[in-house]
Amino acid sequence: MKNKKDKSGRTGCRMVIFSAPSGSGKSTLINWLMQEHPELNLCFSISCTSRAPRGTEQNGVEYFFLTPEEFRQRIAQEEFLEYEEVYPDRFYGTLKAQVEQQMSLGQNVVFDVDVKGGCNIKNYYGDQALSIFIQPPSIEELRRRLEGRGTDTPQVIEDRLSKAAYELTFADRFDCIVVNDDLEVAKADVFRAVSEALGFSQEEDV
């Protein structure tokens, strides 16, 4: 994987995009990377949603909370990098201005988005973003993992598997595909890809 480096030796990459079918282990890998490697200075992008805050959630911390009307207005003004209407009037999306602000603070911004959102962000930022697709070893293994969770009905599992088969067709559009068959190997692959893209030598203190 080639990345453009500036005079300091750092690359132009300032964003890391993760996408994957449900059950691929994406969240496990992201959380491990951010907790175990603070030297990479990774921070989640703060997304917008039109749902109400839950529990102790605060505006501008977990999410920016907008009304459906405010969300539609910002869509019309093309302020979003990506967005999705998950249910009627239930929107989620990423504001361009928020990402730029986080980068201006020196943060390397992490996105945990669906495949279409990941492709949209990558297309917008080009070499500034590294896109990683976390892939299960097979649909059969994905079924085993989803059934092992014990949280979904058989119909929900079938729906997730059908969606996963569709999402897997996007894998080749990403810069890097990490097959999560062995978790420790996948961790090493993710760390290697991200550290190289951000211009961190793995010989540095990690």
The global form is globular
Q: What kind of sheet is the major sheet?
A: 5 strands, parallel
| Alpha-beta content class | alpha/beta
What is the helix tally? 7
Reading side by side through the largest sheet, how are the strands ordered?
2-7-1-8-9
Give the C-alpha Rg: 17 Å
- Report the uncertain regions: 1-11
Percent range for helical residues?
25-40%
Instruction: List the helices and strands in order.
Output: EHEEEHEEHEHEHHEH
- Average pLDDT confidence is 89
| Number of E-state strands | 9
Ends apart, CA distance between termini: 21 Å
Strand coverage percent: 15-25%
Which keywords apply here?
206 residues; alpha/beta; four-stranded mixed sheet; 7 helices; 40% helix; globular
What does this structure look like?
By secondary structure, the protein is of the alpha/beta class. 40% of the residues lie in helices and 21% in strands. The strands form two sheets. A five-stranded parallel sheet has the order 2-7-1-8-9, sandwiched between helices. A four-stranded mixed sheet has the order 4-3-6-5. Helix 5 (139-149) runs antiparallel to helix 6 (154-168). The radius of gyration is 17 Å and the shape is globular. The model is unreliable at 1-11 (pLDDT under 50).
Characterize this entry briefly.
With 206 residues, the protein is an alpha/beta fold.
Write the layout of secondary structure elements.
Blueprint: E1 15-19, H1 26-36, E2 42-44, E3 47-49, E4 63-65, H2 68-76, E5 80-87, E6 90-95, H3 96-104, E7 108-112, H4 115-125, E8 129-135, H5 139-149, H6 154-168, E9 176-179, H7 183-198
Parallel strand pairs: 1-7, 1-8, 2-7, 3-4, 8-9
Antiparallel strand pairs: 3-6, 5-6
Helix pairs in contact: 5-6
